[in-house]
UniProtKB/TrEMBL annotation:
Listed EC numbers: 4.2.1.136, 5.1.99.6
SUBUNIT field: Homotetramer.
Alphabetized InterPro entries for the sequence: Carbohydrate_kinase_pred_CS, CARKD, Nnr, Ribokinase-like, YjeF_N_dom, YjeF_N_dom_sf
Top-rank taxon, per record: Bacteria
Annotated protein name in UniProt: Bifunctional NAD(P)H-hydrate repair enzyme
Organism phylogeny: Bacteria, Pseudomonadati, Pseudomonadota, Alphaproteobacteria, Hyphomicrobiales
Record-stated family: In the C-terminal section; belongs to the NnrD/CARKD family. Belongs to the NnrD/CARKD family.
């Protein structure tokens, strides 16, 4: 499955290249788009009393005229409703000329129960708020439970940002060639319904020419080439050793959740680094996970020299303040270690929660350390609040999408950013980014983020490159939560990832 996400500008470029390469011209692509939508409507809604096709002035509307013509030819009762002025000579104008149905003004459209609405008002060209008339049709459709089939995007949703300027609530959205970021980013994702990607004759070779750097986060992105393989002669330290910093005696649970998750993800050994005052409570709750005292910078230096762990988690339940800053900066002083034989980084750091918030007053000290030439691979896992503390100006931007914000932050921090939420975005400093879409609201439970940090560290420790480790970690975490469903608490998650891992490995013969 191809999982590139195309911005509206990239889609327009694909369109241009496809038309230049032939054999289809713009009008031909529009016919194919209309055919795909009409076929879907006929297959899904064979008993529709009436199909209302709403056409805007641009090419989205053009697709709509093709749909209306094809459905009418198939014997469906079709009514056409339009708004806006078409450009004379445009493909859309040609499509409307080829459709002989009477055109009514959208202001008079009142769909009734049993009807179907095809929303072909605005797609990639959305440039302002949708009209009151369009909103009224959307409202009546929802109230009457009339299914809306949106062409390309629910009108009002930006394909670039997922932001909405008034909107339709689609049952199905049919888009072309590839999904767009707006199909996966909130709030747009909420109103797309089922998303169908139709092939309209733009070949993969054209998409390849665009050098796309935005992807839907699916296993295709990281499973085949990057997922850790466990060598037949592995021993525990060869499988990676994760160290997780614990908070003080009343805040140790978060670190243990991370530690357990790292171990379940396949790290061969995991150690909780605990303040002296929390050793007792940690010891009482750990079995396979090791425990070691780490109160000072010197303790960390000693540990680093002695055990050479392959990944750290710093932040969950750690406490905000000078100690977190000092520990993080000490880890960042350590040089990266690249194993040229195996082609892997030998260690990396996941900074989460308090590890991020501790730098809110002076994030530049963190960024200076992360930009040092030999600094180790870094993954930050902020939720929205933590993101705003570290990157307040980026967070404030009204214009930028969550995708653009995560990219800007990754560049500034020279770290992989996992900008969490229902539409988690993973972005790398080199501009690659992925949007995650397999989660479920059950994941919004205290400690869930701590588990995610542990999963990512577990993968980093096994030599997975940081962007791929972050993408895989987010997907596995989301998949485990989605499958577990209601009633899940963070304690359940480390065990819930096991069947997900089994399935991934089953589906990839050379990982078995
Ligand atoms: N390969 C492909 O990509 C293919 C794409 N195809 C289809 O083309 C679609 C993109 O077409 P498009 O570029 O003509 O843009 P579209 O969304 O029809 O709107 C542009 C017009 O609407 C106007 N307008 C915008 N918002 C408005 C508002 N809220 N309220 C009122 N007016 C508003 C805007 O006005 P302006 O900003 O110019 O003032 C302009 O006149 C794409 O989504 C897909 O369906 C297929 O044909 C097959 C191949
Ligand atoms: N509505 C949702 N749908 C899918 N995933 C969600 C949703 N809400 C939260 N999540 C995920 O749950 C996790 C919560 O992490 P975080 O906010 O750090 O929680 P905590 O600090 O309690 O561990 C993140 O991975 C986030 O992406
Ligand atoms: K639309």
């Amino acid at each position: 499955m191809r999982n590139e996400l195309l911005s509206p500008a990239e889609m327009a470029e694909a369109d241009r290249l496809a038309i230049a390469a032939g054999p289809l011209d713009g009008y031909g692509l529009m016919q194919r788009a209309g055919e795909a939508v009409a076929a879907m409507v006929l297959a899904r809604y064979p008993a529709a009393k009436k199909v209302h096709v709403l056409c805007g002035p641009g090419n989205n509307g053009g697709d709509g005229y093709v749909v209306a013509r094809l459905l009418a030819e198939a014997g469906v009762d079709v009514e056409l409703w339009a708004e806006g002025k078409q450009k004379p000579g445009s493909d859309a104008a040609l499509a409307s000329e080829a459709c002989n149905l009477p055109v009514n003004h959208i202001g008079h459209c009142y769909p009734e129960a049993g009807d179907v609405v095809v929303d072909a008002l605005y797609g990639a060209g959305l440039s302002k708020d949708i009209s009151q008339h369009a909103l009224a049709v959307s409202g009546v459709s929802s109230a009457e439970r009339v299914p809306v089939i949106s062409i390309d995007l629910p009108s009002g949703v930006s394909g670039e940002t997922g932001q909405m300027r008034g909107h339709f609530d689609a049952a199905v959205t049919v888009t072309f060639a590839r999904k767009k970021p707006g199909h996966l980013l909130m709030p747009g994702r909420r109103v797309c319904g089922e998303i169908i990607v139709a092939d309209i004759g733009i070949p993969d070779s054209i998409i390849d020419q665009l050098k796309i750097t935005t992807f839907e986060n699916t296993p295709d992105l990281w499973l085949r080439w990057y997922f850790p393989r466990t060598a037949i002669d592995a021993h525990k330290y060869k499988r990676g050793h994760v160290a997780v910093f614990s908070g003080g005696s009343s805040a140790t649970g978060a670190a243990r959740l991370s530690a357990l998750a790292a171990a379940r993800t396949g790290a061969g050994a995991v150690t909780v680094l605990s303040p002296g005052n929390a050793m007792q409570v940690n010891a009482a709750h750990l079995t396979s996970i090791m425990l070691r005292k780490a109160d000072t910078i010197e303790d960390i230096a000693e540990y680093l020299a002695e055990r050479q762990p392959s990944a750290f988690v710093l932040g969950p339940g750690f406490g905000i303040g000078e100690r977190a800053r000092a520990f993080a900066l000490r880890l960042l002083q350590q040089n990266r270690v690249y194993d040229y034989d195996r082609g892997i980084e030998l260690w990396g750091i996941v900074l989460d929660a308090d590890g991020l918030t501790s730098f809110r007053d002076n994030p530049d000290t963190l960024f200076e350390a992360s930009h040092r030439a030999l600094a180790p691979p870094l993954v930050f896992t902020p939720h929205e609040g933590e993101f705003a503390r570290l990157f307040p100006d980026i967070a404030r931007s009204k214009k930028q999408s969550k995708l653009a914000k995560a990219r800007a932050a990754a560049q500034r921090a020279n770290a992989v950013i996992v900008y969490k939420g229902a539409d988690t975005v993973i972005a790398a400093p080199d501009g690659h980014a992925a949007i995650n879409a397999n989660g479920a609201p059950w994941l919004a439970t205290a400690g869930s983020g701590d588990v995610l940090a542990g999963i990512i560290a577990g993968l980093l420790a096994q030599g997975m490159p940081p962007f791929k480790a972050a993408c895989a970690g987010v997907w596995i975490h989301a998949e485990a939560g989605r499958r577990f469903g209601p009633g899940m608490i963070a304690e359940d998650l480390p065990l819930a990832i096991v069947p997900v891992l089994h399935e991934l490995i089953e589906n990839q013969p050379d990982l078995r």
